[in-house]
Specification:
The protein has helices at 34-65, 100-106, 154-162, 177-186; strands spanning 68-73, 81-85, 93-95, 113-118, 123-128, 132-134, 139-145, 221-227, 236-242. By secondary structure, it is α+β, with helices and mostly antiparallel strands. The protein contains four helices and nine strands. Helix content is 24%, strand content 21%. The strands form three sheets. The chain has a five-stranded mixed sheet with strand order 2-1-7-4-5, sandwiched between helices. Strands 3-6 form a two-stranded antiparallel sheet. It has a domain at 68-162: Ubiquitin-like (UB roll) (Roll).
Length: 243
């Protein structure tokens, strides 16, 4: 009899990946040296302090660089009052109606009129409070309330604050005076001015035929030539060497 053959299935199976223990990464650490920790904390605190100081300076520079002052005559015959406005967010454009505190200090509303001094026209111009004007940093704006006509010390403040405005085009770069003088001295005179003109080429002429090798070398002779320079009335002497 032949033995019966049956399929044999192995009961052992490979372990699944879920059964494999995933070991955590090995980390090696130890407490930082006390001196190093103190140094690190000190440097960190210094950096944070510097950053805070720079940020505070930046926040102060912004309103300081965007400020104007109003010199306003509030009543007839009385000296003007100065009102400072800082932190103009729309700089260099300014609308007084956007600043309620300024209007309250001057006793105005956005529907009122105000007189602003025009340095170009050298007179006061009637303007609406609610209008946009262009200003410069630290500018002093001369104003007077509507109806005020007697403005003491007006000429003094005009000369003090309105005559120092930068003129358009004044920043154009120009040649220094020394360069202009040097350019004028060389214009139309060629490569050299009269005082530096070279003498005639004949003053440096030499014989056309060189001496023969057998002949003894003669001693050099010196002759003088005179020529006149256009920049000097006295003649100049030039020594010429002949070989």
């Amino acid at each position: 009899m032949f033995p019966l053959t049956t399929s044999h299935t192995s009961t052992t199976s490979s372990p699944s990946t879920s059964e494999v223990d995933v070991l955590p990464p090995k980390l090696y650490k130890k407490p930082m040296n006390a001196e190093w920790a103190h140094r690190y904390n000190t440097n960190h605190e210094e950096r944070e302090a510097r950053k805070a100081t720079e940020e505070q300076r930046r926040q102060q520079d912004l309103p300081y660089g965007r400020q104007v002052r109003f010199c306003c005559w509030m009543k007839d015959g009385e000296d003007p009052e100065f009102v400072r406005l800082q932190g103009i967010t729309t700089f260099p454009k300014l609308n007084m109606a956007d600043h309620p505190k300024l209007l309250k200090t001057l006793g105005l509303t956005k529907d009122d009129d105000i007189w602003l001094y025009d340095p170009d026209g050298r007179s006061f111009a009637r303007e609406d409070v609610d209008h946009v004007m262009e200003v410069t940093a630290h500018q002093v704006i001369l104003t007077r309330l509507y109806g005020v006509k007697n403005c003491p010390r007006l000429d003094e403040y005009i000369a003090l604050y309105c005559n120092k405005r930068p003129v358009a085009g004044s920043s154009r770069r120009t040649l220094p005076s020394t360069a202009l003088k040097r350019k004028a001295a060389f214009d139309g005179l060629g490569a050299f001015p009269p005082s530096l003109k070279t003498p005639h080429p004949a003053a440096f002429s030499r014989p056309s035929t060189p001496p023969s090798p057998n002949s003894s070398s003669p001693s050099p002779t010196f002759t003088s030539r005179r020529y006149h320079s256009s920049s000097s009335s006295s003649p100049s002497s030039v020594a010429t060497v002949r070989f």
